[in-house]
Specification:
315 residues, alpha/beta, TIM Barrel, eight-stranded mixed beta sheet, two-stranded antiparallel ribbon, 10 helices, 15% strand, globular, binds iron/sulfur cluster
Length: 315
């Protein structure tokens, strides 16, 4: 039974990231409406879902984002955990949305993830636009608007920001904004990463990240798993992957995939989830996966972890 969903509401984006090709696409593809989300998520196979995250592209480019979230929440009454990821370019819209979500009784755990790649110069180099200040403002305004909000800074490590200065900068901003932080190495996924540039980091940089993870004071299991992955090439959390079983990835046109790194459709708005059991996981997926989108909300950030994480980073 599905318990966790990643829902990508648009392929449009106003960033120009080196790590991604979504913004270069002329055709942005079909986006399903709130009423189509209602049709999809009211199906029996979604009735045990307990958490979902909204992502894009950039979710705030959808004018109906608030309506979409409310519709999805109503369609899946067992959901109690909600996360939205943003590139941080719409601080006012984000604060307005989280002010409302703060009052929503159904959501017991309310989370916001904002992308940041290092200091202002590094962030601009990787994100292609000057989003550093607006990302910080997004964190500040949203936390003020929604006192129970948990925030996290997400970073994609490339050879440009895989250095102690950038990692320490991100950690510093996390402390200053009361946020957790998390990162993963750049890799070319089937969904949205840049297939043109070589952005991977070197063996020396890899060792630096492993050391940073060991000493950063975070007890986030995802970061620990990343350290293992970088050391051994094996992702421990993905040994018995439950993609398509416990979690699924919903694309902007309403099609359902087992995970972010899959090319096989298992459902859509018209038919619901029509592949009930996957027997050959890995045949159409990019395994092993090292992307937080597939399991981060599910396995990481339980309230205890994030509380410890805050205090340990903060002290
Ligand atoms: S990585 Fe995210 S923020 Fe950057 S261009 Fe792609 S979708 Fe937009
Ligand atoms: S890429 Fe493979 S390991 Fe990663 S989530 Fe998908 S099926 Fe699981």
């Amino acid at each position: 039974m599905l318990k966790s969903l990643g829902i990508r509401v648009t392929r449009k984006c106003n960033s120009r990231c080196l790590i991604c090709h979504l913004w270069k696409e002329q055709a942005t593809g079909r986006e399903v409406s709130a009423s189509q989300y209602k049709k999809l998520f009211s199906q029996p196979e979604f009735q045990e879902v307990e958490e979902f995250f909204i992502s894009g592209g950039e979710a705030f480019l959808r004018k109906d984002i608030e309506q979409i979230i409310k519709t999805i929440l109503r369609s899946m009454p067992k959901v109690t955990k909600f996360l939205l990821t943003t590139n941080g370019t719409s601080p006012l819209k984000a604060a307005e949305l989280f002010k409302k979500l703060n009052k929503n009784q159904q959501i017991k755990t309310l989370r916001l993830a904002v992308s940041l790649e290092g200091d202002g110069v590094t962030n601009k180099k990787i994100r292609g636009i000057d989003s550093y200040n607006s990302a910080l403002l997004t964190l500040k305004l949203c936390r003020a608007a929604a006192p129970r909000l948990q925030t996290v800074i997400l970073t994609t490590l490339t050879h440009l920001n895989c250095n102690r200065r950038s990692l320490n900068h991100i950690k510093k901003i996390a402390v200053q904004t009361g946020s957790a932080f998390s990162f993963r190495p750049f890799y070319n996924s089937v969904y949205h990463y840049n297939h043109e540039k070589r952005l991977e980091f070197s063996g020396k940089q890899k060792a630096l990240v492993v050391d940073f993870i060991k000493n950063c004071g975070s007890d986030d299991p995802f970061l620990k798993a990343q350290g293992e992955y970088l050391k051994t090439g094996k992702m421990p959390l993905m040994d018995k992957c439950l993609a398509g079983n416990i979690f699924a990835d919903v694309r902007p046109d309403g099609s359902v995939y087992p995970c972010f790194n899959s090319t096989r459709e298992i459902g859509n708005v018209a038919k619901g989830v029509y592949v009930k059991k996957i027997k050959d996981l890995g045949q159409h997926e990019q395994c092993p996966c090292c992307d937080e989108a597939c399991f981060h909300p599910m396995f990481c950030w339980p309230p205890k972890t994030i509380k410890n994480n805050f205090s340990r980073i903060g002290n």
